[in-house]
Specification:
It is a single chain. With 498 residues, this protein is mainly β. Helices cover 4% and strands 44% of the residues. It contains two helices and 34 strands. The strands form nine sheets. Strands 27-34-33-30-31 form a five-stranded mixed beta sheet, with helices on one face. Strands 7-8-9-10 form a four-stranded antiparallel beta sheet, with no helix packed on it.
Length: 498
């Protein structure tokens, strides 16, 4: 009995460790923290100290969903005849982090993100861009390092405003986990070219990896390049949208080598393509152009297959802003009131800019995806057009790939995690899951456990692979525990989609 209890608590530790909720606290707008419960993913609204102007938001939580830090600001000052914007880093208590002032970024959408520094506990890299449009600073991609172990957990910026590349960049940067499940690829795009810039964040720090001249060319002009780049949830596709060309480009991405290839143009007649968001199962992509939302089927051979989901016909001065996939599998949209009368813009409050809009069932084709405009009230606060950039912190290593070689297992012969003895696919899955046992290892028992540690499926089998019907399971994150006949145990995570 004692042995069973020990194994049970070890397994709970695994579940806790793999149930990462680092993307569950979204700081946005004027004083809003949208927090998703780490167990139920239920959203709630909290008030927080923030005086953001618009759009450029980023935040990160610990594995239990508790807010660690966020970007605050921007402050502005006049240098000569120009405005200069700076932002500041705050900790989860709403206090400015030591040396966290004067961060060289501005208010453009998706211009910053925070990543854990691999193999450095409670230390983070902060990546951000500065565009030429807001000059007096060198335009390009920057980074800072924040050590949250210092100052009794209040944190300190130990390296600030380090310039990684010099170029006029478009809005937005994006990140995805390397195929080894530990490191990170960080990608930005030139604003006057067709050039992707790519960096690798590993335990040794951040290093330039490659440039890729691929896809559409941006017109050569000094105007800020509005748009977005975004990795899908599996990390094998990269989307690019912009005001400067019609449609959305989708590229293949290799998580092992970082190769960007095979662009496909999902063309449209939209003149101002702005936001792109993938559905949880990566079958659809949702685009917006301020007043419309479209759905594109990525598995349809007709690249011009978009369906109109919603059109704004009632709020002429309210534009739809950034979209973001939430931990609950829904897509959230911010909006902003904008008027030629600036005073009115700064002081205007109504349901359109004090609420988020939601796509409730983004895996479903057409208008049945359930878009509800202005449906999540922000308790009187405004969203101001932007949402934080939340990469997929939970993306696991690529099984049986050339880069799944970190040796994440405990080398005592009794507990093995994320090696290639067990494969599960497809992942995510909505109806059936295949569990394959490799290397001649014989299984004794298989359990499927939910995020609360409750066993929902239990199987006894000795076949080399097993098909499991999971249609009856609720959508969410689950863990498969495979007990081997030799006493070893393997734990794998999968996502049950709707």
């Amino acid at each position: 009995m004692k042995k069973k209890l020990i194994i049970f608590f070890i397994f709970l530790g695994i579940v806790k460790g793999y149930s990462q909720c680092q993307g569950n606290s979204w700081v946005l707008g004027d004083s809003v923290c949208l927090k998703f419960d780490c167990l139920t993913n239920q959203p709630s609204i909290e008030e927080i100290s923030i005086w953001h102007l618009e759009e450029n938001y980023t935040s990160i939580s610990d594995s239990n969903g508790n807010l660690i830090m966020y970007l605050n600001g921007p402050d502005s000052m006049i240098i000569g005849a120009n405005f200069q914007f700076y932002c500041n880093l705050y900790n989860g208590l709403g206090l400015e982090i030591e040396n966290g002032d004067s961060i060289n970024t501005n208010f453009s959408v998706y211009n910053s993100l925070i990543l854990p520094y691999p193999n450095h506990n409670n230390v983070y890299y902060f990546f951000y861009t500065q565009e030429k449009f807001y000059n007096n600073l060198i335009p390009g991609l920057y980074c800072s390092i924040i050590d949250m172990n210092l100052n009794s957990g209040l944190g300190k910026v130990i390296l600030k405003n380090q310039l990684l590349i010099t170029d006029t960049l478009m809005e937005g940067i994006s990140a995805v986990k390397h195929g080894n499940g530990r490191d990170w690829w960080v990608t930005s795009h030139g604003g006057l070219s067709n050039k992707f810039y790519e960096f690798l964040l590993s335990p040794s720090g951040v290093n330039f990896n490659s440039e890729f001249d691929i896809g559409p060319n941006f017109p050569v002009s000094g105007v800020i390049k509005i748009g977005e780049i975004l990795f899908n949830n599996k990390g094998n596709k990269l989307a690019l949208s912009s005001f400067d060309f019609n449609g959305v480009f989708i590229f293949d991405f290799n998580r092992c080598s970082g190769l960007i290839s095979n662009p496909s143009n999902y063309s449209s007649d939209l003149s101002e393509e702005y936001s792109v968001t993938f559905s949880p199962n990566d079958s659809f992509i949702y685009t917006s152009d301020y007043g419309h939302i479209y759905q594109i089927d990525l598995f349809n051979s007709n690249l011009n297959n978009r369906i109109l989901i919603w059109q704004n016909t009632t709020a002429p001065y309210t534009f739809l802003g950034q979209g973001e996939l939430g931990p609950d599998g829904k897509i959230y949209y911010a909006s902003q009131f904008f008027s030629p009368y600036i005073y009115e813009s700064l002081n205007y409050f109504d349901s359109s800019n004090t609420s988020l809009s939601i796509i409730n069932y983004p895996n479903i084709s057409g208008t049945s995806c359930g878009f509800y405009p202005y449906s999540l009230y922000l308790n009187g606060h405004r969203s101001k057009g932007g949402l934080p950039d939340m990469p997929n912190y939970n993306l696991s290593a690529l099984d049986e790939s050339e880069c799944d070689s970190l040796g994440l297992g405990i080398d005592n012969g009794k507990l093995i995690i994320d090696n290639v003895i067990v494969r599960i696919y497809p992942n995510p899955s909505s109806d059936e899951l295949t569990i394959e046992i490799l290397n001649g290892v014989k299984p004794k028992e298989i359990e499927i456990v939910n995020a609360l540690g409750v066993t929902v499926v239990k199987l006894k089998q000795t076949k080399p692979n097993q098909q499991v019907n999971i249609k009856s399971l609720a959508a969410g994150v689950y863990f498969i525990k495979v007990q081997m006949q030799n006493g070893d145990m393997q734990v794998k995570k999968f996502v049950k989609s709707e």
